Amino acid sequence: QCVAGGSALCDFMPPDQYDNSKHNNGSSQFSACDIYNCLISPFTKTEITGMIFYQGEGNESSYSVYADNLTDFVGMMREIYGTNMPFYNVQLPSHNTGGSWPGLAKVRFAQFDALKTIDNYYLVSTMDKGISGYDTDWAHPTNKKFIGERLAYIALAEIYDYSNYSLNYYGCPLFTRAKVKDGYAYLYFTN
C-alpha cells in the first residue's frame, strides 16, 4: 500500500526511467520519484498480481500529458514487476471545496482516454458518489467502501472470471450515442 496525498504522477516513477522533459511534474509537495524511492522501490522484489491507483489531482495543471504519462507509468511498473498485471485506476470524483479546479475534468478524461492505450487497464468511475451532506470535500469522500467494492467486482469479473459479476455493471460507463427527442437529450452507455 502506498499513500501520499498531494502527489503528481511523476512522484511514483522510478528515477532511472523518469524523463523530466516528458513526464511533467504537475503540482506536488514531493520531488519527482520521491514516492517511488520511499514506498515502491523497497517492494520491487515482491510478487504482485495487480495494482490499484487513485491519483490525479496533483496533475490538474498538466492534464494534457496525463494520459501519455499514465501509459508510461503503467509500462514502467509492469517492467519492474515482470508481468502484464491488471492496472485498476480510480477516476477522480467531483470537487466541492469552493476553489477553482478547471483541470480536474480534463484529468478524468485523460484517465478515461487511457482505456484506448493501456491493455489490461480498468477504470472505476466515482462521479456518482461522494456527494452527500457529510462530505464537504467530494474529491476525498469519507465513504470509500463503494470504490473498494467496484474494484473487487471488476477483478472478480475480469481476472477471476466469476460469472456473477460483469464489467458492464461495475466498470466506467462508456458513452455510445446521444439522441434528442421532444426537447430532451438521451444518452446511451454500454455499461
Describe this structure in words.
- There is one protein chain.
- This protein has 191 residues and is an alpha/beta fold.
- 27% of the residues lie in helices and 13% in strands.
- The protein is built from five helices and five strands, in the order αβαβαβααββ.
- It has a three-stranded parallel sheet with strand order 1-2-3, covered by helices on one side. A two-stranded antiparallel ribbon has the order 4-5.
- α3 (104-113) links the parallel β2 (87-90) and β3 (121-124).
In short:
This protein has 191 residues and is of the alpha/beta class.
Give the overall pLDDT as a whole number: 86
**Helix count from the secondary structure assignment:** 5
Write down how many β-strands occur, each being a DSSP E stretch of 2 or more residues: 5
As a whole number of angstroms, the C-alpha radius of gyration is: 17 Å
Give the spatial strand order of the biggest sheet.
Answer: 1-2-3
Helix fraction, binned, reads 25-40%
Sheet/helix structural class: alpha/beta
Main sheet properties: 3 strands, parallel
* Pattern of helices and strands: HEHEHEHHEE
Taken from the alpha-carbon principal axes, the silhouette is globular
End-to-end C-alpha gap: 29 Å
Low-pLDDT windows of residues:
none
Strand content: 5-15%
